[in-house]
Amino acid sequence: MKQIIFYIFLLLVFILFTNCEKTKKIDGFTDEEFINFISSDNYKESIFRIDSLAKNGVNSTHRTGLLYLEKGSILGSLEKDLEAKGSLTKALMLFEKEDNKLYIAKTNMLLSDSNAFLSNLDIARNQINVALEIFRELNDKKGEAKALNSLAHIEYLNFKFDKSIEYVIDAAAIQEELKDTATLSASYNNIGYIFEQIKDFTNAKSYYKKAMQLNIDIERLNSHPLRNLGYVSLLENDLIKSKSLYLQALKIEEKAGVLANQKDIYDLLLELSIKDMNFNNASLYVKKRDSLNELITEFENTEKIKLIQNQYNLITKESELKQEKKDNQKNKIILGILVGLLSLLGLSLYQRNKNTKLRLDQEKLLLEQKMLRTQMNPHFIFNALTAIQNTIFENDPLKSSTYLSRFAKLIRQNFEFVSKKEIYLEEDLDALKNYIATQQLRFKNKFDYEINLDNDVNASLIRIPPMLLQPFVENAIEHGLKPKKEKGMLKINISKQDSLVKFEVIDNGIGYNKDENVKDREHAIDIFLKRLKLRNQGEEKLFSIQSLNEQIGTKVIMLLNLH
């Protein structure tokens, strides 16, 4: 027994020493080495590592900022822009606290990308201008050129093509000065594309040719300028020239081995052959394209298998990452409690068994929460698709495309939310807007709605259980506003009340009738109350449904404790 205690003592000393050494190693990294340390080919593993270090393993403001910056960059690349904004906002606050101008500029650039994706163009433009001013102050020419290209993209999205061209030309001038040929080629291609959109084909072709020549000079396998030239020739009805350019582009993509680009080129060659009435070539291009489709499908299946393998590897590595998290914690009192720890060895075995039982109970609760969060009504999905199909029959492709895109985003959000315990309020409201807009299409704008958010409620920082309001919004539409003869109104009010956030769902429908659809409503309310009980904060006692007045509406009130 004494030997066992002695070996345990040596093991604990070794753990403490190893922990200190690893901490010194991390603290000694340069910024670039630190980013490489936390990064991984598997984005889930990277985020796990970042969250672990942010909570326990990094003691400087700057390094914590780098963690949030890298996490925001990863989320942005995955098009999770609302989550990316939350992480990048935290990074920006930390860099501003230490007055690190370079990283303030870099963070603003990433924030502008997320806001541009979310159509917040004015906010995105302001953030780019902040970054541009800093890059110029620091004489960072590469950063300045990148900011100018981003401004050009914003103005392009605003249909201000002249301003967009001006910014890209300014960026290209800096890239010429830096002899940054690869980036300059992309800028020339972008300028040509903007000229193409305003039907100035002469200038478009000129810049496409410049980009093409730069790619040749640096032996870069990039066919975009050639393909763009081919498309302009197609628009000018010069089918021979267009075909020649596409065939040149095809050779480049065959060397590069990019199957998707080869398929796109064959699609365009097929279109040219049909226009030229050359059906022999058309048949050949169809075969080539179909062959590439098979290769692409085979490649995608291989990638899916790799993804499954990566997921399996991630599970096996989680224990190692958790251990790494522990290693990064500075436990300065471990030696002081060694004697007490050894004397309580028997008690720890009992406690370990107890903790195992608690962990299993917690996992059971989490699984129950996930089941409760799966709420998308299949009848709603069928009816929404039917409504979208009707717009297609009405021969309104823009309207059909808009609603189909919104509906697809809603379904994707529902799938993403099922796996999460909490999401940002901003994300939940975005999904709710997509849901209400789809219902408006379905019921042909039978009702209007508004979402009122008090100024002291920061939707980008507050986290709530996902899809919390959706069942009551659905009830308001289906049971309150749908039967109403005249046009209805749905209001969602969100405000602060002491340490709570108050949510109100109000409709001016036919009123709350307890005898109608009682089973469906009570089931939805029961699920909602179970979700609140699982949070174990007594919030289920703060929930109420009120009739506003006889036959003229219903109000649902809920309050969440966010501390």
Give the gist of this structure.
This is Histidine kinase. Among the domains are: 85 residues, Serine Threonine Protein Phosphatase 5, Tetratricopeptide repeat, CATH 1.25.40; 188 residues, Histidine kinase-like ATPase, C-terminal domain (Heat Shock Protein 90, 2-Layer Sandwich), CATH 3.30.565.
Description:
By secondary structure, this protein is of the alpha+beta class. Among the domains are: 221-305, Alpha Horseshoe (Serine Threonine Protein Phosphatase 5, Tetratricopeptide repeat); 374-561, Heat Shock Protein 90, CATH 3.30.565. Helices cover 72% and strands 7% of the residues. It has 22 helices and 7 strands. It has helices at 2-27, 31-38, 43-57, 61-77, 81-97, 101-117, 121-137, 141-157, 161-178, 181-197, 201-217, 224-235, 239-256, 259-275, 279-327, 338-343, 345-373, 378-393, 397-418, 425-442, 470-481, 518-535, and strands at residues 423-424, 447-453, 463-464, 488-497, 500-507, 544-547, 554-561. Strands 2-4-5-7-6 form a 5-stranded mixed sheet, with helices on one face. Strand 6 (544-547) and strand 7 form a beta hairpin. Helix 3 (43-57) runs antiparallel to helix 4 (61-77), helix 5 runs antiparallel to helix 6 (101-117) and helix 18 (378-393) crosses helix 20 (425-442). The longest helix has 49 residues, at 279-327. The protein is globular, with a radius of gyration of 29 Å. Mean pLDDT is 81; it is low at 16-25.
